[in-house]
Amino acid sequence: MQVVTRKGLVRIAIAVVVLPVVVKFSMCNCGWGRPAMSVPGISAANLSRHVHAIASVEHNVTIPQELMKAADYIESEWRAQGHRVNRQMYRVNAVECSNLEIVFPGRTRANEIIVVGAHYDSVEGSPGANDNGSGTAALLELSRHFKGAARTVRFVAFVNEEPPYFQTELMGSRVYAKACRERGDDIRAMISLETMGYFSDEPGSQKFPSALFKLFYPSRGNFIGFVGNWSSRRIIRQAAAGFRGASDFPLECCATFGGLAGIGWSDHGSFWHEGYPAFQITDTAPFRYPYYHTPADTPDKVNYEKLTRVTEGVFGAIAVLAD
After folding, report:
1. Is residue 1 part of a domain?
2. In this structure, what are the phi and psi dihedrals at residue 315, rounded to the nearest 5 degrees?
3. Which of 2, 170, 202, 228 is the most buried (most CB within 10 A)?
């Protein structure tokens, strides 16, 4: 029989008592409000078109021609919107990889920066329609309507989020965030758009990294989540107020320990690594989506009507953070 030390009991107490308190606090203080800008007509047809163009086939460094096609599509869409596209280039296994960025300079506080990002690569063996064609499609549709704000807003498409580069120095968002820190960029918030298009009303369709979450969150996977670490709780509350002022889509918020499974599993984690506040907007990916990281993650699995409503809310969230 293993003897539990006093230190061990303290750790158990933290896990049993503090975790649900943190979760409950963050959920109950997301707030309500109005976006700083009117909400545009987000197009479900455009979202579908983007997902089909980017994520109908596998695209990553093992198939560089397809990865390049995805990057070229994103760049062409942004150029069609009238933007200058900046490419941050670096090599991975002799493959030229690119983060792509467009910038809306701030009107009155240009040195303060909001980053909105999504990764456009897919995991090996999957076309990645929901993970993360849905997030990339939302990124393109949001930038189409955005007109600028008090703060500078950057829209960024990241490469190499998926394994084997996830949480390594070759992860696209890690390369980008590191460069931001080296320049001294004053990033006030980063939003990662990650796996946003699958929803279910079936009881028990929503899973969690800990059973304690079941005490506070729905068992049906019919909501979108704002998920971040405890240090990002303020921007989550502000963004949630903007979202709820722009969309009636169900929203749940969680600011908790960043080391819990799933909490830091996207590009926002790269910004935590550099000391920036950041969170992800997600349908919770493997905790709900049955086709996660499989060949069946195809464009027909994305619910474009609901993704449209989510994207409208995200526009409100960005407006509040930027103004």
Report:
1. no
2. -60, -45
3. 228
Q: Which of 125, 104, 124 is nearest to 115 (CA)?
A: 104
- Given a contact cutoff of 8 angstroms between Cβ atoms, the answer to whether 308 and 44 are in contact is yes
Kindly state the tokens that stand for 212.
Answer: 């304690």
Predicted TM-score (pTM) above 0.85? yes
Domain boundaries, position 137: 6-322
Q: Peptide bond preceding 286: is omega within 30 degrees of 0, i.e. cis?
A: no
Question: Is residue 137 one of the residues assigned to a domain?
Answer: yes
Count how many domains the chain has: 1
Token code pair at residue 263: 């909490």
| Residue 21 burial by Cβ neighbours in a 10 Å radius (0-12, 13-18, 19+) | exposed
- The reply to whether 302 falls in a domain is yes
Pair of tokens at residue 282 = 């997600």
Give me 215's structure tokens. 């005490």
Residue 145: exposed, middle, or buried by beta-carbon count in 10 A (0-12, 13-18, 19+)?
Answer: middle
Assigned domain for 315 exists: yes
pLDDT single digits (tens) 7-64: 544 444 444 444 544 544 444 444 444 444 467 789 999 999 999 999 999 999 999 9
User: How many Cα atoms within 13 Å fall on the side-chain side of residue 234?
Assistant: 5
What CATH number is attached to the domain comprising 306? Answer: 3.40.630.10
Cβ neighbours of residue 23 under 8 Å, at least 6 residues apart? 212, 213, 216, 217, 254, 256
Q: How far apart are CA 236 and CA 255, in angstroms?
A: 8
Please name the residue that has the structure tokens 């919107």: 81
CA angle 267, 16, 209 (to 5 degrees): 35
Helices 233-246 and 19-28: crossing angle in degrees, nearest 10, is 40
The 10s digit of each residue's pLDDT in 153-183 is 999 999 999 999 999 999 999 999 999 999 9
